[in-house]
Amino acid sequence: MSISVLGAGAFGTAMAVTLSQNGPVTLWARDAEHVQAMRESGENARRLPGVKLPENVTVSAEIADALQAETLLLAMPMQKMAGFLDTHSDTLAGKTLVSCSKGIDLSTGQGPTALIRAKVPGARAAVLTGPSFAGDIARGLPTALTLACADHSEELQAELSTPTLRLYRTTDTTGAELGGALKNVYAIAAGTVIGAGLGDSARAALMTRGFAEMLRIATELGARPETLSGLSGFGDLVLTCTSAQSRNFRLGHAIGAGEAFDPSITVEGAATAQALNKLAHARGLEIPVAAMVMALTEQSISVDEAMQALLARPLKEE
Ligand SMILES: NC(=O)C1=CN([C@@H]2O[C@H](COP(=O)(O)OP(=O)(O)OC[C@H]3O[C@@H](n4cnc5c(N)ncnc54)[C@H](O)[C@@H]3O)[C@@H](O)[C@H]2O)C=CC1
Ligand SMILES: O=C(CO)COP(=O)(O)O
């Protein structure tokens, strides 16, 4: 059984590298020049420098090459997924589409599985998510992720597990994808606190209250609470709120420190904060930390104002 990875960013490349231990993998990039550069150098210098592409990984700019496989990993930024599915919907029907993207589509409020079902009705949708930096996976460091698929596939779990990548399965696709999307918002909050010098205690408080918000909104949207407590929710929240490897954390850190941040870096949490606030508002749910993250990323509030607003909220029961 062969696998293809669609999107040759850091994460798609890392997944291609680890999965190539099980068999041949096609790594598809939309940019032919990027493919040429990867073939010549034997690595993805743009997105994952220093990691050699194994022989089992074929890089291609032809989508037809990738479509030879039945299992396709979607590894592109969330806000690009709808356009990608629209363009290729006919050819993707009947395939197993495993989303690796962590976000909520801003224009529809849908997560990856709902988007896949809407755009490619004949496809089987799954989600691969959890605490994992691309560099760690590619270097073969031990990693555990959640694989969510409505039809409970042990076969898919085995297909996507490697000697260093251990997958746990669940049928709760909503919980898994919301955990992965929402933690990015709180990683921005954590980064902001550290960048502004507000201390580790404040970060722990925001992580905990952020997790409460994650549970509140995700369960309202149909997620199982235990999924949020697992790798895809709590696990990834811990990783991204405590590591400067996280781009979401780094964006927050720059906001807190009053520094510039390179806008070409993929940071899913800013758009997710907007989508999340829309969803919460429509349901009458309070998510004060996520509201502050949205205001900070939109530059409509200062860090000091955000912190004061959170501290001045009415005292309540935990
Ligand atoms: N980098 C990481 O450690 C992890 C990333 N992820 C998730 O994976 C997703 C992708 O992130 P990265 O690979 O890190 O980003 P990246 O910034 O390294 O790469 C994004 C890639 O997507 C490609 N792309 C953009 N629009 C596209 C389109 N319309 N069609 C096909 N390809 C397109 C770009 O050319 C680029 O190669 C995000 O949702 C991220 O949250 C998940 C786990 C870990
Ligand atoms: O999702 C990730 C780790 O699990 C990667 O986080 P960033 O997108 O913040 O770098």
Structure at a glance:
The protein is of the alpha/beta class. Helices cover 52% and strands 12% of the residues.
Walkthrough of the structure:
The chain has 15 helices and eight strands. With 318 residues, it is α/β, with parallel strands linked by helices. An eight-stranded mixed beta sheet has the order 3-2-1-4-5-6-7-8, sandwiched between helices. 52% of the residues lie in helices and 12% in strands. The mean pLDDT is 97. Helix 8 crosses helix 13 (268-283). The termini are far apart. The protein has helices at 10-19, 32-41, 63-66, 78-92, 112-119, 134-138, 154-160, 173-195, 200-220, 225-228, 231-242, 247-257, 268-283, 288-297, 303-311, and strands at 3-6, 25-28, 57-60, 71-74, 96-99, 124-129, 143-149, 165-170. The protein has two domains: 3-171, NAD(P)-binding Rossmann-like Domain (Rossmann fold), CATH 3.40.50.720; 175-311, N-(1-d-carboxylethyl)-l-norvaline Dehydrogenase, domain 2 (Orthogonal Bundle). The longest helix is centred in the middle third of the chain and has 23 residues, at 173-195. Residues 102, 131-133, 184, 187, 236, 239-240, 246-248, 268 line the site of 1,3-dihydroxyacetonephosphate. Residues 102, 131-133, 184, 187, 236, 239-240, 246-248, 268 line the site of 1,3-dihydroxyacetonephosphate (13P). This is Glycerol-3-phosphate dehydrogenase [NAD(P)+]. Its EC number is 1.1.1.94. Belongs to the NAD-dependent glycerol-3-phosphate dehydrogenase family. It comes from Thioclava electrotropha. The active site is at 183 (proton acceptor).
